[in-house]
Write a structure and sequence with these properties.
Elements: H1 3-13, H2 17-21
């Protein structure tokens, strides 16, 4: 398989082929013409380059609102999105503000390392690195 065909297959698998090829919906067997034999990111409608997909393991965000102003594709548009270039993390904590919340309880231990992400650590010198208050 040629390098161009491999790229098109990868784009199709990621669901990006429709954006990259525009209305023609080119397939890997019929690649769209490109200059220099290299794939270039095609602008979306409105001339913007598509945002990169979230890292693997990130919970799926809802699709962007039709015709809305949502550069981070988190489904929160316009002035309602306080962090327009950072997608909401959709973890059930302040999900309506449009900002990712990396430390829901504000105890200084990030949620990915916090055994109690909604209960703040009491910082009493006993197991303070686990993110949980000690009984």
């Amino acid at each position: 398989m040629s390098r161009m065909a491999s790229i098109l297959v990868l784009l199709a698998g990621l669901g990006l082929l429709a954006n990259a090829c525009g209305p023609s919906q080119a397939s890997p067997q019929e690649p769209a013409a490109s200059s220099g034999g290299q794939a270039a990111e095609a602008p979306q409608a409105g001339g913007e380059t598509p945002a990169e997909p979230p890292p693997e393991g990130t919970p799926p965000n809802p699709p962007p609102a039709a015709g809305g102003d949502d550069p981070d594709f988190d489904g929160i548009v316009g002035a309602a999105d306080a962090c327009a270039n950072e997608p909401e993390d959709r973890d059930g904590f302040q999900d309506e503000d449009g900002c990712p919340d990396m430390d829901n309880d504000g105890d200084g231990t990030s949620d990915v390392n916090d055994l109690c992400p909604v209960e703040p650590e009491d910082a009493d010198g006993v197991q303070d690195e686990d993110g949980c208050p000690d009984a």
